[in-house]
Specification:
By secondary structure, the protein is an alpha/beta fold. The chain folds into two domains: about 5-200, Rossmann fold; about 200-428, Rossmann fold. The protein contains 16 helices and 13 strands. It has helices spanning about 15-25, 40-45, 55, 60-65, 100-110, 125-140, 175-190, 200-230, 235-245, 265-275, 285-310, 335-345, 370-375, 385-390, 390-395, 410-415, and strands at about 5-10, 30-35, 65-70, 80-85, 115-120, 145-150, 170-175, 195, 320, 350-355, 375-380, 400-405, 420-425. The strands form two sheets. Strands 3-2-1-4-5-6-7-8 form an eight-stranded mixed beta sheet, with helices on both faces. A five-stranded parallel beta sheet has the order 10-9-11-12-13, sandwiched between helices. α16 links the parallel β12 (about 400-405) and β13 (about 420-425). α5 runs parallel beside α6, α8 packs across α10 and α8 runs parallel beside α11. The longest helix is centred in the middle third of the chain and has 32 residues, at about 200-230. The protein is globular and about 70 Å long. It starts with 6 loop residues before the first strand and ends with a strand.
């Protein structure tokens, strides 16, 4: 395969697939994008990003060069197919691999001899060998002869100004030596970071779930510290910053109102469930998930405490949910703690006013000024730059009585000096 002359097809034009498709165009590849969401396709056809992402906004001229369609037959002309579909978990936290199965089925029905099929979607160890390859085999397509199967777990951090699809190092694994060679050559041609070839495709699959389970465990640790230190009157953020002065053997993580995004709250379950099938119980991972899943409810409990201090009931009080996306300065709602916080507030019959400048269609008001005039108390969920620029005095001027700082991003001492009740996550 002549890599530089390859035609690339990207299945799934979301937060992972679309930047990747644009990067391939940027590096001189002929690229087609496949997605079943017509609204997304219409937006791309108009030269607009279907979601807020600075990397894409800066490359709209390249976006216009992307052929985006819902016609799977375009895969027949592709030399390299990148599967970038979502892999969520259901309400019981069981991995849903149906999107991956659907994408693989499209590949099989539109195969071309010698294609490199790369699964970028996050999957648990064993999926390529136990699910994907058998699907091809059932269609009499042999890996290493008719096609090459590889896994390169996606690594993307929406909104990160330093690390993006152009420079984040990657790992690749394949079912065959030739497959991993081709995959490494392709990814080395589109990114500036290191591309590490793993010994097996299963090890490549395991890499991603280990990365995000590591973060989940450390966040759970500091979230539990936040609850503990709250009882002791210790500022957990100050302690973590103090511990971080040690130049070795410590990596600072910070507590918050819950863990969101498409990776950290999901990936550990892939490892938990796969290990369970093999007879092993990841007790440590399960406990970490339990702790982090408890944080939205804990945040609402803190609001209840502050309302008690100002002699207001939860029922009927206008509580502002400030921010809906899981992360600052993006419009991504996936696994956002805000959803759970709103749900819990509704259970307690609070009068909720939600606002996010990046998700106006789910906001109850049109702007910050209108938001502040409406609410009596605030749960600060997302530290958007627009929110961080608001003078704290403005909260007081609008009659806000209490603030729960779910991101530990605000100046609690200043808020209290202004006469408002304040509580962070592990900070009073």
């Amino acid at each position: 395969m002549n890599i530089k002359q390859s035609r690339v097809a990207v299945i799934g034009l979301g937060y992972v697939g679309l930047p990747l498709a644009i990067r391939c165009i940027e590096k001189g590849y002929s690229v087609v994008g496949l997605d079943l969401d017509q609204k997304k396709l219409d937006s791309i056809a108009q030269g607009k990003s279907p979601f807020k992402e600075e990397f894409i906004e800066e490359r709209l001229v390249l976006l216009k060069k992307l052929e985006a369609t819902n016609d799977a037959s375009v895969l027949k002309d592709a030399d390299i197919i990148l599967i970038c579909v979502p892999t969520p978990v259901d309400e019981q936290f069981y991995p849903n691999l149906n999107p991956v199965r659907g994408a693989v089925k499209m590949c099989i029905e539109n195969t071309k001899k010698g294609q490199l099929v790369v699964v970028e979607s996050t999957i648990n160890p064993g999926v390529c060998e136990e699910i994907v390859e058998p699907m091809f085999a059932e269609a009499n397509l042999a890996e290493g002869t008719d096609y090459y199967l590889a896994h390169c777990p996606e690594r993307i951090d929406p909104g990160n100004e330093k690390w993006n699809v152009t420079n984040i190092p990657r790992v690749v694994g394949s079912m065959s030596q030739e497959g991993v060679k081709i995959a490494k050559e392709f990814y080395s041609s589109i990114i500036e970071g290191e591309v590490r070839a793993m010994k097996s495709i299963r090890e490549a699959e395991a890499t991603k779930v280990v990365e995000n389970s590591f973060r989940d465990i450390n966040i759970a640790f500091v979230n539990e510290l936040a609850k503990s230190f709250d009882q002791m009157g210790i500022d957990v953020k100050d302690v973590i910053l103090g511990a971080a002065t040690k130049p070795f053997a410590f990596m600072p993580h910070f507590p918050g109102r819950g863990v969101g995004g498409h990776c950290i709250p999901v990936d550990p379950y892939y490892l938990i469930e796969q290990a369970k099938k093999k007879g092993f119980d990841h007790h440590f991972l399960r406990v970490a998930r339990e702790i982090n899943n408890s944080m939205p409810n804990y945040t609402v409990e803190l609001m209840q405490d502050l309302l008690n201090n100002v002699e207001l009931p939860m029922k009927g009080t206008k509580i502002g949910v400030m921010g809906l996306s899981y992360k600052a300065n993006i419009d991504d709602l996936r696994e956002s703690p805000a959803i759970k916080i709103v749900k819990e507030l509704k259970k307690k019959n609070a009068d909720i006013v939600a606002f996010d400048p990046y998700i106006l269609d789910m906001s109850d008001v049109k702007n910050v000024d209108e938001f502040l005039k409406e609410v009596q108390a605030i749960i600060f969920v997302t530290n958007h730059k627009e929110f961080m620029e608001i003078p704290l005095s403005k909260f007081k001027e609008n009659g806000v009585l209490a603030i729960v700082d779910g991101m530990n991003a605000l100046d609690g001492e200043e808020i209290k000096k202004l006469g408002m009740e304040y509580h962070g996550i592990g900070r009073k």
